[in-house]
Amino acid sequence: MSDPYVKQTIENQVGYIEFFHPAHNSLPGDILAKLANTISEAGQNDAIKVIVLKSGGDRAFCAGASFKELININDEATGKVFFSGFANVINAMRKCPKFIIGRVQGKTVGGGVGLASATDYCMATKFAAIKLSELNVGIGPFVVGPAVERKLGLSGMSQIAIDANTFYSPDWAKQKGLFTQVYDTTEELDEAVKSFAENLCTYNPEAMKEMKTMFWKGTEDWDTLLAERAAISGRLVLSEFTKETLKRFK
Question: Which of 20, 129, 198, 226 is most buried when burial is the number of CB atoms within 10 A of its CB?
Fold first, then answer.
């Protein structure tokens, strides 16, 4: 399990989409592109009625953006393309006509919180603390902000965005509406996700599609909005403050 991947398996009409990266499941541009494409394709696959988004490994669901790529951004255009990676995945999840269940087994940082927030129903373990760390490196959660705000509300999102050094507990995330249930073990989580997803497959796909459209009402401008937000991050990552901060991660 050392090479990064995005893979999809289908079991009992549930499409399991799994991503992995050895650096705590941080996501470089090529993996984000594969993830967005896989989600879009699963949305059009008649063999799949419900999608589960998960990551490999035990300790971390997703550490957010790849610092290795972040450090090497030297112009605004490259920066915008880099930050558009998460925007494209979130928009693929938003437009997907099928419910996406999130399976969050461990800590989640930055862009990873955005992915969890863009699922339609998210289940986690007691190890799944969340943190929006972007301000720590001189940028902000601009791209993932709309998705996180949609789940946590403006108050919850701004709290963790400003308090960028703190991990918030899974129980806090559940109280705010990000997680629906929190389990003691990954085994319990997997059992619950499987049971819930397979039960959803017994429902009318057309009804679920219409419900998803209803739930995401008011986000029709996100293609434009998230691109604009990516441009803001792409500009800020070139600031002297951020460049100096990122040197610590080299």
Answer: 226
C-alpha span between 35 and 21 (Å, rounded): 12
Q: Give yes or no for residue 153 having a pLDDT over 60.
A: yes
Cα–Cα distance, 16 to 112 (Å, whole number) = 17
At 219, which amino acid appears? T
* Alpha-carbon gap, residue 57 to 107, rounded angstroms: 11
State how far the Cα of 191 lies from the Cα of 204, in Å rounded to an integer. Answer: 23
Which residue from 106, 90, 136 is spatially nearest to 24, judged by alpha carbons? 106
Put simply, whether the predicted model's pTM sits higher than 0.90 gets the answer: yes
Short-list 104, 105, 86, 111, CA closest to 178: 104
pLDDT in tens, 101-131: 999 999 999 999 999 999 999 999 999 999 9
Alpha carbon 9 to its chain's center: 19
What SS3 class is residue 146? helix
121-125 and 181-183: which strand pairing?
Answer: parallel
- As a whole number, mean pLDDT of residues 36-41 equals 98
Ramachandran area for residue 56 (φ above 0: left; ψ -120 to 50: alpha; else beta): beta
Report how far residue 35's alpha carbon sits from residue 88's, in angstroms, rounded to the nearest whole number: 9
Please provide the size of the chain in residues: 250
pLDDT of residue 74 exceeding 60: yes
Collapsing DSSP states into helix, strand and coil, what is residue 12? Answer: coil
